[in-house]
Design goal:
The structure holds 2 protein chains of 2 kinds. By secondary structure, chain A is an alpha/beta fold. Helices cover about 35% and strands about 30% of the residues of chain A. Chain A has a 6-stranded mixed β-sheet with strand order 5-6-7-3-8-9, sandwiched between helices. A 4-stranded antiparallel β-sheet of chain A has the order 11-12-10-13, covered by helices on one side. Chain A is globular, with a radius of gyration of 23 Å. The mean pLDDT of chain A is about 85. Chain B has 2 domains: about 110 residues, Periplasmic binding protein-like II (D-Maltodextrin-Binding Protein, domain 2), CATH 3.40.190.10; about 230 residues, no CATH class. Chain B contains 16 helices and 4 strands. In chain B, helix 1 crosses helix 10 and helix 11 packs antiparallel against helix 14. Chain B is elongated, with a radius of gyration of 30 Å. The chains are: A alpha/beta, B mainly alpha. At the A-B interface, strand 5 and helix 2 of A face helix 1 and helix 9 of B.
């Protein structure tokens, strides 16, 4: 478990991180979410012991001592690779620094899994952006770390490789690793994370399990698309305070009997589709930030 | 020993690169090549020009004799350095005309042999540029000879007696206890070797510093620094880099010194003695570490190589001092100025190396300068570590001088 206890960091009188308080559970993937400049990278750097917080403390498994390098895998946002050496040299060097046993076998096997086996002797700057990102990720997890900290890990990856990365993270999660996944792309986080921490302007605005947050803050709507657009003005919809967007009516479900409402609409008009629209993190985030949630 | 892993990585990746081979072997070949080509060109006379000079001879005697002597002197030269157009006459009548000829570049300048030249020995020379300085020396020397002969004749001395008057004294140089005099090669080596030692030290220390700065900038701009710092400590990272690139410089120096030993053996000269060799390595390591701190500190402050290079220029100015003053040190190794500069740490290794190579230093001075360097190295590395720790992760931000001073004081 990693605990950030009220950590703060100021840069030139700008409060980059303001009393951030988060607990990250082992065996779960925790999403660090927020727009660019929210303080995610600064928090991660404090976590990585690259910079020191002005106040607050960071505990790993309840202890102030940092785990040693062998137990941490860190993927910084963008780049983070020597450009002029080969894939093999890169992975061997870091494996050597982290005391990985049987490094060569491990390197070959993981490159194989990422379909990079034939690029072993390619220079890093000869790889595509996506392949460089894969190499970065491999370099982060090659030593099988206990704590995995990923800053924008999906950038540059195509959907197939995003899926592969997700699979690997699932495996690591099952093995009880503590994983932090920082991103500004909320849909990705929704697909991968178990817990989320929403950060804005250095402050934590919301944290907890993803499903719970969606249940609690997400406003579920009924989305009705009639065959005839004229039916959007039907009293059964207007009386329910429906919002009309792109040929569909959206009715807020909270406090209403869903099946009764559907039955009434069905009776009143010809329906093309009718479905329950799940709320997204992005909606919640915007709603919370705009509502100046404390 | 994590820093040794880093050092080894930095060392291997550079020693394997073609630039190390080019730098190590290409540089001496290039310098040798340039001197050989320069020597060859000077020998062939390419690049030389004939100076066209006017001459107004008021005496009507010396000019003609001079031309005759010059003709004999330059008989074998394809490109005679000086070509003189002689006119007999009065300066005040001809001045305007000759000035005009110089202005339109028909002449590079003109001489005037005044009427009373025989008594005063004062020659006059008029010209627009100073590119004719050497020619005036040649003409003056020739005229001196003519005057000497003239006076010898007036004293009834025969030309044979005259040659007896001019004698040369040669000096044979012996090493203490040696039975054979040193030959010319040894004498030249004795003068040039101290410079070569200093130059190698200079080359090694500043190439190492530059590489170090570039390595820091590379890791900073590629953000590898973040991955590294999540894996190793600041001290290991900085120490590993300094040691790795230092080993590279030592390898290079060892190759050169070995070449010196082999060369010395071949020509039967002992240029690289065990004492000089080991002191070379000591001063190399101390000088390298002193500058390593400076280069690493500067590397940590800047985002682009261009900015860092500009900032480091001031260091380069200090480093040029030994390159400017090396002849002074070889010829006056015990002067007060040279001794004082030996205790100025940025140039200590270079000046001491020259003094050691010419054999003009004391054990006391060696020990004292080494102690001084150790203290300076400690300060330089400590300050560099402070900058490295504070600034290395501040990307895209212009760092101001007051900030740097505050960090250094911290």
């Amino acid at each position: 478990m990693i605990e950030l206890l009220n950590i703060s960091k100021e840069y030139n009188s700008v409060q980059a991180v303001d009393k951030l308080h988060i607990k990250i559970q082992p065996g779960r993937i925790c999403g660090f979410l927020g727009p660019n400049g929210a303080g995610k990278t600064t928090s991660i750097r404090m976590l990585m012991n690259i910079i020191q917080p002005d106040e607050g403390e960071i505990l790993f498994n309840g202890k102030q001592d940092r785990p040693n390098a062998v137990e941490i895998g860190y993927l910084p946002e963008e780049r983070g690779l020597y450009q002029k050496i080969s894939v093999s040299e890169t992975l061997h060097y870091f494996a050597h620094l982290r005391n990985v046993k049987q490094a060569h076998e491990k390197i070959i096997s993981i490159l194989d899994r990422f379909e990079l086996q034939d690029r072993l002797h390619s220079k890093v700057n000869e790889l595509s952006k996506g392949n460089q990102q894969k190499l970065q990720f491999i370099n982060t997890i090659l030593h099988d770390p206990e704590y995995v900290i990923l800053d924008e890990p999906l950038s540059g990856l195509d959907p197939v490789n995003q899926l592969l990365l997700k699979e690997i993270l699932e495996d690591m999660k099952k093995a009880g690793k503590t994983i932090i996944f920082s991103s500004h792309q909320m849909e990705q986080v929704e697909k991968i994370c178990d817990d989320v921490a929403l950060i804005n302007k250095g402050k934590l605005i919301l944290s907890g399990s993803l499903t719970q947050i969606l249940r609690e803050y997400g406003k579920t709507h009924l989305q009705v698309t009639p065959e005839n657009e004229s039916d959007l003005a039907h009293p059964v919809l207007t009386e329910a305070d429906a919002a009309i967007r792109n040929g569909s009516a959206y009715i807020l479900l909270s406090g209403r009997n869903k099946s009764d409402l559907i039955a009434r609409i069905n009776k009143a008009m010809d329906i093309r589709t009718i479905k329950v629209a799940e709320p997204g993190l992005e909606d919640i985030f915007i709603q919370l930030v705009k509502g100046d949630h404390k | 020993m994590t820093f040794l892993k880093i050092a080894w990585f930095e060392y291997l990746r550079r020693i394997r690169s073609k630039w190390f081979l080019i730098g190590t072997f290409g540089m001496p070949i290039l310098i040798l090549g340039i001197s050989l080509i320069g020597g060859y060109l000077t020998g062939t006379g390419a690049g030389l020009e004939t100076k066209y000079m006017g001459m107004i001879d008021e005496t009507g005697i010396y000019g003609q004799q001079l031309i005759a002597d010059l003709d004999i002197k330059y008989a074998d030269e394809d490109v005679p350095p000086i070509n003189i157009a002689l006119t007999k006459g009065e300066f005040r009548d001809l001045q305007e005309q000759f000035d005009a000829l110089v202005k339109e570049h028909s002449f590079d300048g003109y001489f005037v042999i005044p009427m009373d030249f025989g008594e005063t020995q004062q020659l006059k020379f008029y010209a627009q540029s100073s590119a004719t300085m050497r020619s005036t020396d040649v003409i003056a020397a020739e005229l001196r000879q003519i005057l000497t002969q003239e006076r010898a004749a007036s004293l009834n001395l025969s030309p044979e007696s005259l040659t007896k008057l001019f004698v040369n004294v040669d000096v044979d140089h012996y090493d203490l206890g040696a039975s054979e005099a040193r030959d010319t090669e040894e004498l030249i080596a004795g003068y040039v070797a101290p410079f070569i030692f200093m130059f190698l030290l200079f080359l090694g220390i500043f190439t190492g510093g530059q590489l170090l700065m570039r390595a820091v900038l590379e890791e900073r701009s590629s953000r590898v620094i973040e991955v590294l710092l999540s894996t190793v400590s600041y001290n290991d990272l900085m120490g590993g880099k300094i040691v790795g690139l230092g080993m590279l410089g030592l390898t290079q120096s060892a190759i050169y010194l070995l070449a010196g030993v082999i060369g010395g053996y071949y020509y039967d000269m002992s240029i690289v003695t065990a004492g000089i060799g080991s002191l070379y390595f000591i001063y190399f390591i101390l000088g390298y570490l002193l500058y390593a701190g400076v280069y690493i500190g500067v590397g940590a402050l800047f985002d682009s190589e261009q900015e860092a290079q500009q900032a480091i220029q001031i260091i380069t100015f200090i480093a040029v001092i030994p390159m400017l003053l090396w002849t002074l040190v070889i010829e006056n190794p015990n002067s007060a100025l040279v001794n004082a500069l030996c205790y100025f740490p940025p140039v200590t290794p270079f000046f001491m190396m020259i003094k050691i190579a010419v054999g003009e230093t004391t054990m006391f001075q060696i020990v004292l300068t080494i102690l001084l360097m150790l203290v300076s190295v400690y300060a330089s590395i400590r300050l560099a570590a402070k900058l490295f720790r504070t600034a290395i992760l501040l990307y895209g931000k212009r760092i101001t001088m007051p900030e740097v001073i505050r960090w250094l004081k911290a």
